[in-house]
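Q: Hi! First time asking for a complex rather than a single chain. Here are the components, and I think there are two in total. Is that enough to go on?
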Amino acid sequence: MPHQPTAADTRRTLDLAFAPRSVAVVGGVTNTRGMGGGSFLRATKALGIVPAVYGVSPKGGTLEDGSPVYPSLRDVPGDVDYVISAVPASAVLDVLEDARAKNVRLFHLFTAGFRETGDQSRADLEQELLRRARAAGIRILGPNCMGIYSPGGGVNWMADAPAEVGRIGVLSQSGMNASMMVEGGARRGLRFSRAVSYGNALDLIESDFLDYFRDDPGTDLVLCYIEGVRDGPRFVRAMRDLARHKPVAVLKGGSTEAGSRAASSHTGSLAGSAQVWEAVRRQTGFLSVHNVDEILDLAVTVQHLPGVAGDRVAIIGGGGGASVVYADTVDRAGLRMPSFGEASRRRLSEFIPVAGTSVRNPLDAGLMAEGELARAVEILSQDPSVDCCIYHFGVDFGPSRHSGPRRFEERLLTALDQIKRVAARPLVLVMREPQSVDGMEVTVRLQAAIGRAGFAVYPSMERAATALRRYLDWRRDHGAGA
Amino acid sequence: MPHQPTAADTRRTLDLAFAPRSVAVVGGVTNTRGMGGGSFLRATKALGIVPAVYGVSPKGGTLEDGSPVYPSLRDVPGDVDYVISAVPASAVLDVLEDARAKNVRLFHLFTAGFRETGDQSRADLEQELLRRARAAGIRILGPNCMGIYSPGGGVNWMADAPAEVGRIGVLSQSGMNASMMVEGGARRGLRFSRAVSYGNALDLIESDFLDYFRDDPGTDLVLCYIEGVRDGPRFVRAMRDLARHKPVAVLKGGSTEAGSRAASSHTGSLAGSAQVWEAVRRQTGFLSVHNVDEILDLAVTVQHLPGVAGDRVAIIGGGGGASVVYADTVDRAGLRMPSFGEASRRRLSEFIPVAGTSVRNPLDAGLMAEGELARAVEILSQDPSVDCCIYHFGVDFGPSRHSGPRRFEERLLTALDQIKRVAARPLVLVMREPQSVDGMEVTVRLQAAIGRAGFAVYPSMERAATALRRYLDWRRDHGAGA
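A: Yes, that's all I need. Here is the structure of the assembled complex.
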């Protein structure tokens, strides 16, 4: 290799990648369906930030918005910082040659069909690509990945990713898992600084991004999906260093035997054993999860509950059977349910009726009258035995029930507004997953509104309790980055 | 007590309770909102089966449908088999006296505020109610419960319960959990023979219903939510006897210390320790679950996968990252992921492209062309190493994706139709929980259609794998009722 890039080279490349002056998408740019050149072009143009975004395809023609499709990268006017390749693997060396002529700095390959196929000639092609890129001073992102989402800098691959900038970073070897974190997280009110899907990690590897996130003042929390690492010792150093500065949650793909075989055919990764990975976790101090739902639950927890003092929860909500099952759930998850103090019980019984309900923990009280939820949370948050209140509710309002969803939403948001002013301890919301179309409409509106109001909301008691317990354990053991 | 009812008495009472000739609802019958007399009356009338359904309330007046409200039970013309009491606890003894005059056989108390409050005078009132009912030859259901849902016989308390009759029985100490099983199960394509919410179990106790379900030719599978049992030795005998005849899944409320305290204030139950309960499970052979979602997952499994031969699964679906995480998920749940045989790989590679995907288990192949899913399942179901195929997919179709949800639904249902004819092994579907209103519309339609087509569908890979593993374990240990 003629030139081994330095850390400073990598840093400059990534600064440019997250905010390029010009982007060219090569291949399939006139396709309006499915993932490919067209979707990269549309998603990036939709953000409206990158000054010049070009479509390149041998057939030429024009895009939906009337702009020209250039037959070759060489036909694009001026230099190009960042190329997104959506051509077949057989064409990438030619496109790289064109890229060299245009002073391209970063070459992202959505193009797949390299080492991950297990085919030697395709693995050789991947190595040849790296050799030529190094010779040309071009950095490679991927291949076999979705690349970059940078709402502040204008690059994007997702149709439903938010345009607003947040403070969560995503690093994912899989594009689908990155999309599920960003798009799924957005629906729960989360916003992101940047996301990277890095696939086969041929040139830019996981630790390059970990280092970048460590120094990134725009990122407070990092979510990772990792199948295998390219450089083990460097990874341990980079992860430990990052986790010292900010919380990091990691979903390890391929941590079982079956998963490890799958990872090998997905990104050509050697996934390593679960034991090794657990040792890395202990050394580096990241938060470990098992799936995308859990990583988003943790992101919600870290974002909204940094100040939760301990594991003693008060449960509030309607339905005796649900209350019993939820008490079992939080107990089984390792949280504690204290008995309320005498003062709390007296104050609560002033407005909570006794028949069929009871002033105990869990507090069996459903849709309370105006102001009562806020009052209950205020009282319990002053109880010295309670660290955190959890309010559970469902949003499938059948034909004959209550006063309708709009009224419920108004009341809940009014209550949250009061609670922010009066509660001494955090409130967690559990909004059961909807079963009806009407319930989903309420959920979509309320999830966003609750997040904006600064409260953590989860779709089940299990998930709330698991995330809270995991966060408390991690803070006890590795709390430096919290 | 003047008369201890015999098993034959109980059986006759329950036959009548599930198909009464006349029902009277007493209290709150003109209320159109919330749970109470009005909702029982509306739900039962809506089924249109019970010949005479009366509303009783001291205020008199008329119902929405123009029928009269009788000021007292004594004013109702003719005898009444079944009374639903929605009056305050202080009025129940008077209503019972009226019921005696009308030859009432079963007195169901939605009315709460008895023993479960922990108040001695209310516990005394409950005992007085039992004493007087026994003297009058009237059986008591409850108090503090939702009573009976019997789509074949016409009694109902739920706005969204199906009118169609199915073959699943529900026995629940909690009305809310019973509703969640029936209404939630209905959305997943399950149908029910009868459901009972029995609350404080003052007279009719859990084992009376277990015996009834055992002998009920209309019930193939029983789902239970139980907080505490009134007669331990009889419960063990009744449950063992039932579980010998048909599969029984049990959600035990109050199986932790926190849950046990909650159960005591919910239905006045002594919940017993988790160790005792586990011993009962081993002796009697029911399937044990932790929440309502799990019990419905098991019902789907028992209903649609009785013939699954073993734990070796083939996973099919789109997205490399999802495939890796799902392989980890099924491995962690204790299922096995075999390598496909050489013949299967060759036949699959004839139509599955290699770039970015691979002909391995999990098979990374998303929305396949017409007929390809059916072909893949056919091939894999002939592979001697595979017991069961799992196809995973999401239904949140963003603006730019694929050819739209309707087209996807059509293709999937066409494929399922083909698969029913050609597949030698069962196919399980994992339809990820929707995140959008459009996705929920698809989910509501597809869940019902998939169930009708005779396939098991679950909302996540975790839940599918957990239910399948639990069912296989149970069949190995206690398979007689399967």
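A: Chain A touches chain B through 89 residues (CB under 8 Å). Let me know if you'd like any chain examined more closely.
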